[in-house]
Inverse folding.
């Protein structure tokens, strides 16, 4: 499969998607969103893939939705086509996902990163929701996921002023899992991805789903759901291999064909 706006490859058990519209700072347009759906769907189906990394260039992860594409649109264009409703491929992925962010992650770029399970940032990363400066509001989760990630105080600050925050501030407020030197970004992101992909895939998918539910369920329901999942994993090869390996003082070998 060849893509116009992405570079997609497989490294061991890790699927890697690089946004590839460098001249437009990887602005997200309809073609890119459609290609992301295709790439994520292929990785989702592939049993040999245990984690997906999404990244951009050193200058930009993505500088937002493509303003040139958006500018002529009307309310009815957006409403009729439910514009951007399916620009949520990382959020829909049942497999763990990592955003490796360097440079600008603005508007839809920040929102794309927030759809991923881990955000690993280079020290030059800049996050923001500048939509208000364009006379609009975030449309891909910037008011909802950002507020859940960083709390009301910081979310209001970013969404209402449109200012950017650097990687250090993003880590301090809980948007980012780790900050690393730019030169190490892909090495660290790939190491994290390989570590996750080496775990039992059903277990990793379950762990991801459980943490996601923490945002959506009341505590008592979340705890019940967690306990059921905990019980259920005792029916998997992963549990047998993981515990047997511990008892035999060896490394576990999950996801064997
Ligand atoms: N859409 C389309 N093109 C974009 C773009 C975007 N979001 N961001 C940057 N570009 C293009 C520029 O138009 C420029 O292209 P040309 O050379 O053809 O003019 C090229 O990328 C380089 O950009 P700049 O010359 O502006 O680079 P800079 O270093 O001076 O500034 C920047 C970088 C601060 C990121 C600036 O480009 C910028 O402010 N971009 C827009 C950021 C933004 O507002 N994002 C939110 C979009 S709305 C949204 O995302 C809605 C949503 O919730 C989904």
């Amino acid at each position: 499969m060849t893509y116009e706006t992405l570079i997609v490859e497989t490294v061991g058990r890790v699927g890697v998607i690089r946004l590839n519209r460098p001249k437009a700072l990887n602005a997200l347009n309809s073609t890119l969103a459609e290609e992301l759906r295709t790439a994520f769907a292929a990785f989702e189906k592939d049993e040999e893939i245990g984690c997906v990394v999404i990244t951009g260039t050193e200058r930009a992860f993505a500088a937002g939705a493509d303003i040139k594409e958006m500018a002529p649109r009307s309310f009815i264009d957006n409403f009729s086509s439910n514009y951007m409703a399916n620009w949520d491929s990382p959020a829909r992925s049942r497999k763990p996902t990592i955003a490796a962010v360097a440079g600008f992650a603005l508007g839809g770029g920040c929102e794309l990163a927030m759809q991923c399970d881990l955000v690993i940032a280079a020290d030059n990363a800049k996050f923001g929701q500048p939509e208000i400066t364009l006379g609009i509001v975030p449309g891909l989760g910037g008011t909802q996921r950002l507020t859940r990630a960083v709390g009301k105080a910081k979310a209001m600050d970013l969404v209402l002023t449109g200012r950017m925050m650097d990687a250090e501030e993003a880590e301090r407020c809980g948007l980012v899992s780790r900050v690393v030197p730019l030169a190490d970004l892909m090495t660290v992101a790939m190491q994290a991805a390989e570590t996750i992909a080496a775990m039992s895939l059903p277990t990793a998918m379950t762990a991801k789903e459980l943490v996601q539910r923490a945002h959506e369920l009341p505590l008592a329901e979340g705890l019940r759901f967690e306990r059921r999942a905990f019980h259920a994993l005792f029916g998997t090869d992963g549990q047998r291999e993981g515990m047997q390996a511990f008892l035999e003082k060896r490394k576990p070998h999950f996801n064997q064909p």
